[in-house]
């Protein structure tokens, strides 16, 4: 969009004054940020309106991405950038002697998600808009995001994340589009005079769902899509029934806080309320649209695709059935045909303990009508499946089993498409986790390897790298990511390699300054920066990383004067508040950091930095400065991973097991350009099947490993209570569920190769360049294109020469 610096400066001053009634010169960073954000939102608003009108006028098919989590990150910079206004804004502010970077830091980072799944949803929103596709997000406006993590004496402490404290300039409360969501009570069916069975409700708890809409700005294509987040309130007409603040709690609490556990499903009633609340409001607002524009209901699948992001929104299936049958008076068969053609489902985890199974009694009581419908779906499924496939498969795949509603089964049965998020993960779904369903419905299964938006993770997070690439290959790669491969041509160009090394060093210096500022630790920017950033979970094996660091420390202590390649080990990770073992791992890493960082024998040879409160904004600071990307989950456990992609795109070399999307990284960049170690998923499956694994044998037979493990309990690491013993026990006495000890030797070997390569800076830079140049296939733009073509059947609504255009599919 076209705005001159002069115009911007004038409008910014006016905006500030109209909000605060004094001059911008007296404003705090928060106030200046708010004014700037609202001004940018003003610029967005006409495109937002026009995009919506265009979709309606052309009656285009729209995607609704239902997700309990979104992690958009700060939006000021990305919105200004996608609009094409970032330079004007920066220049205008500097004329006023204000720093854009400083104001941008005042924005709260909305932590409305736990990790990978939520961030993926936001990358997808960015790509949908940037491809000019009609894509809407549907989720919850949690008043409190994922807890703010602090370390007290090395222990994780959780504080509330009140992200709305200083207002949220991007959202628009949309009172015109509220919906009513009903819980509990009694329901019975009665025949009306037209012979329809109509449900009657009594004693329900009625909750008003209020939508807050946020613009999702496409990259230079005049497209602005909508992210709709719902908030729970008391219906105005029922306010008089609530006499005290306490009585209003059961309603307000529905959207008060995000559940902070992404690995352990707990059958909590409130969580089920959240899921149905978001689903019901979302589906109602879709159907209302059809009523308003008088679209024949049978055309719904031609006009809408509803995507179920993991099983959390799987109640979409019975909710859509309910509305079509009870409110639109369609027959069961008609309603089912529509529902199943409209819905599609992505699985994001194979962890058994994360699979949602709601107690039937709970579901029945909270959602009586929905439960009736689930029961009917189940009965019809069993009726159809039993004669064709027999008892075993039918009962294994039923939705209702042993007193619970199996949400994954509901999602698969109610969707025309089921996908995993990386090749290996999809294979595991087909051959293991959902194998019986694969027998029933092979045509539904497909892979959609995850992706990331280069706009946020490269263009904005790493402006210097972006400038270097622009200089060498021009700017086409920004609109056509596959063009990045042209950068490969510079792998032997000394000038490019030197500049690449310089860029990395600058980024590392910046991070080193930040480390000094927030952690008080001095690190040498020339040291190798080794990064593991992701949720803390035993399967991701931060403790394997820990054992290797401890091993290094012991080596340095044994021979302080030997030659070591200096390393800084960087961690960012939150543990679920109830995940005791994960918290113990954090404590041990923090205590080891205290020991190592203050040992004069160690100096710059080894440093450990564990950042507090890892999230999108911190990731943007860390990733451009990484040399090594730690992707060391036990093979078969990590569905895809996405930090692996972000780090690769920023020139980090990957140190990985053959798990998730690491396999595709290896395929694209070539085995010689990353460090692979450890068991393969096939070997993991075999080890589990033949139950031959003996962790203690490894402990006893490998002296180096024994040394390291003994150091956990010998008092070497200061200030531990029983955490060292807890780790030792899980690894040695409880037989090491995630085969950490088994992979230790090959991990150490790979780490030594990392050191050797780092000594040859030119060769390191060459491999780094090849990684950057091979990262285009992980652009979420391609991922979304494949979802659009294969699953949603939607197309771009912008002219081919506007915004992002994907001329070819790289390598897939
Ligand atoms: C019921 C509690 C709960 C909440 C969230 C269980 C599971 C989840 C998510 C599915 C966990 C998650 O974020 N999975 C991650 O999804 C990413 C995006 O596809 C993948 O890259 C990661 O490998 C996967 O762990």
From TrEMBL:
One of its GO terms (cellular component) is cytoplasm. Its EC number is 2.4.1.1. CDD domains: GT35_Glycogen_Phosphorylase. Its cofactor is pyridoxal 5'-phosphate. Keywords: Carbohydrate metabolism, Glycosyltransferase, Pyridoxal phosphate, Transferase. It catalyses: [(1->4)-alpha-D-glucosyl](n) + phosphate = [(1->4)-alpha-D-glucosyl](n-1) + alpha-D-glucose 1-phosphate. One of its GO terms (biological process) is glycogen catabolic process. It is an enzyme of class 2 (transferase). Gene3D superfamilies: Glycogen Phosphorylase B. InterPro entries: Glycg_phsphrylas (IPR011833), Glyco_trans_35 (IPR000811). The keyword Transferase applies. One of its GO terms (molecular function) is glycogen phosphorylase activity. The modification N6-(pyridoxal phosphate)lysine is found at residue 646. Allosteric enzyme that catalyzes the rate-limiting step in glycogen catabolism, the phosphorolytic cleavage of glycogen to produce glucose-1-phosphate, and plays a central role in maintaining cellular and organismal glucose homeostasis. Belongs to the glycogen phosphorylase family. This is Alpha-1,4 glucan phosphorylase.
